[in-house]
Design goal:
Distance between the termini: 49 Å
Order of helices and strands: EEEHEEHEHHHEHEEEHHEE
Largest sheet: 6 strands, mixed
Strand content: 25-35%
Helix content: 25-40%
Oligomer: single chain
Structural class: alpha/beta
Strand order of the largest sheet: 6-7-8-3-9-10
Number of helices: 8
Amino acid sequence: MISILEVEGLKVDRGTTAILRGIDWKVARGQHWVLLGPNGCGKTSLLKSINGYFSPTSGTVRVLGQTYGETDWRDLRLQIGLVTSALQASIPPAETAEDTVVSGRYAQLDLWMDAKPADRRDARQWMRFLGVGYLAQREWAYLSQGERQRILIARSLMANPKLLILDEPCGGLDPVAREHFLRFVERLARKRGGPALLLVTHHVEEITPAFTHALILRDGAVQAQGPVKSALTSRTLSAAFGAPMKLNHRRGRYSAAVEVK
């Protein structure tokens, strides 16, 4: 069976600085991953590499068996959906939520073409699935942060990606909005035929029960990876963040605390 994503020996150097140090990682169908680590550990560089925005110093990245550099990166990038707050500044304030979702079908920002009826039908279907169907005609400027995140997920799903990356999606959300948002993520993870998910975060509290695997980075290298229960421990978390931490697991959710001596 072809993996959704394969990263082998990935190294990224910029000048004399080693940003990524020989990353080996594979995402198989049916898996949902969390990418965890402190600021500066290499998470953003890894995301840019698997989306074709960073050229590696060495190593390979394959999406559905096709290798960056041997296959048109624009075709491969369509297989990976990306939800990141960096997109928000590029969306026109007066664009409706429905138009923003439709734009994902054509990999556009600021939809300028006339959408087909089927596109609008699919957009409304994804918006209803994510609980924001009522926002179809609301302008982007008048959406809350949580609403924007769900609209961006619907936008990414319009291209039927095989991997959906959620890059720190809870940033800027209050505790109640965060929990509501994570419920939608959990629902998406359990959708039959849905994409594999990659949740990028600093916070173990955002890991819901549907996430099966964890990749933990430190200083551009893999600190631990594998099934969540074995890869995510007090020991690996302490090593990654450089401080003694106690990981707790209760009722399917995690919490962590720095141990002060």
